[in-house]
Amino acid sequence: MMQRDAALSVLADHYPDGIVVPVYQSAFDWMAIRPHPLNYLCTGAMGQASSHALGLALGCPGEKVVVLDGDGSLLMNLGALVTIANAAPKNLVHFLCYNGEYEVNGRFPVPGGRGVDFAGIAQAAGIPNVFSFSELEDFEDRVGEILRLEGPVFVVLAVAQGTAYPQDYPAIHSAASRETFRQALRERISSSA
Amino acid sequence: MREAAIETADRAAPVSGAAIIASIKQAGIGTVVALPDIVTCETLLWPVTRDPGLRLVQVCKEDEGISICAGLSYCDERAVLLIQHTGFLDSINAIRAIAVEYALPVVMIVGLQGMEADRAPAESDKLGVRIMGPIMDAMQLSHSVLDQNDDAAAMATTIDDCYAASKPHVFLVPRSPA
For position B66, which CATH number holds? Predict the structure, then answer.
């Protein structure tokens, strides 16, 4: 099984400067692996990342929007998969880092542990392009192609905890992070207009 | 704008759904994020679906809508969230964090399902209706009643203010629009 930070490093190589909405430990890893003003760090409430991302994707149809969700988070907002499938944003790619536990809340297992078929749930919700990876080489072979697909796309990354990156909670709730993203997005949109 | 007192003896005709739609469009709203509510479904949500100037995003649960409106706001896209007060109550944590603490322009139109016709929301027999005002006050969340056409006419200014100041607001709908 691949380590999360290794998988995220592969993603960063293929997606160096686009919008990313990461959550919790994936966010802490991502901030270290790919620090960037277009990281949308402040999702506010657990489970909401994919819904923020849907708003961004609908509001900025010319920009790719990537979500780095967690399994505990997605379980809090499973209906979002149906909402996303129904809204059908072509520019949204939803990655799920599936480790079977609430990693930042005591490493307690999520309901269902590693036995939840998130890919099946996404398919049943109507997401047209669904992938699942547990080996880094397989993910590395396909990630470029996946990022070029028309969305919505859902990708399960079965991962183990990798390097323990610092849990910078102030950054994922700070007004400065929100303002940095806002300015960066405005600059991106104006430069691509 | 009137806050909560709704006098019933001389109560004017209810706000029309058309007046609400006209006002939100005047305020630059392009997207309505919604989950059906019996108070507003027939005369507001269904007309939204037929309005080519508005995009409807249906959600499965109301807190999704808080986040969708937040995401849209970063793209300078204006939206309103059309829900029932039960959904508001279910979404308090998302509203607390995303709309209030993050100070984002999340504008909600909230139907007071079960609201009696002969009294003000604060005097409702329905606990869920009665506690809406105190909860919004405790959350420091501005709110106003959307009951008559004058209220609808004032919506555009309130929405403009929300986006100018980056702050949330709740419009409470105590009875079905005409």
Answer: 3.40.50.970
